[in-house]
């Protein structure tokens, strides 16, 4: 079984925040992206804006296309929980521990990291799973704040007290917003005051899931995103830098999908399934790992890369330095979909299984995201 490795020579999304903080003179951070020295810095993460999608639909995003300065890789899994954690901690998934949209936790079961609930719609875990225990490393925002930097997090008001926010974005002053207008105004106000700002916009990903990336609805949404970026660029204060990035790209799935809930070979010996349609963690009953690996490989064939958890780690899917606690969250078998296939769960995950656009795997369409830079 061939195993794709992370591409050489392409910077990781985890390098963005440390590079920006170094560019404004924050001690303890390295500027690996060679961003010019500035007085204030902001990163805006556009959920779901893959580099290949931007290249294909550049006419719908002239500002983003014009200011495109490079390409980043996001690592495995190419999903929002891992991407937000990469921005907030400056590390890869093997260290920050957000190894999937959902993953198994001892004494908890499969947990949805974004909802901070038992997956898919179980009990709220904010009272039982401490975000600072699940992700114990100081975030880059905490380190910067301790160094005297004014750090602000500008994102949807609904995420203000979420477990995910507390796990990977803690340390900055959270500003809850509701629309493009107050997102823009809040980011610009933060830059006017100096320091560092992180902003997040979710709707391009949302539309892509519903209608497919490249659909008419998605392209219109991309034009709104480009207007958001153009507004920020036009009003950047002198001595400021804005970096626009994404957490993953997206593909539209086709009829080659497999339903794990109705496939007996994909259920035998399996105690739990995590991840999402394009990136699955398979947790096995004791003694069944090798048989489950063989069954999944035989059933999925060319539709997915199917490897053991150790093979995925050794190949660098989760970055270097996978910690012992994070290893427990990685499946005994790890599945990354190829082409436009996916491993759905139509019974357990009916909403997710009905979506047209998906992400999470190792294809270039999902892995590569743009790096856009603008200076005031």
UniProtKB/TrEMBL annotation:
Pfam families the UniProt entry points to: Phosphodiest (PF01663)
InterPro entries per UniProt: Alkaline_phosphatase_core_sf, Phosphodiest/P_Trfase
The protein, known as: Alkaline phosphatase family protein
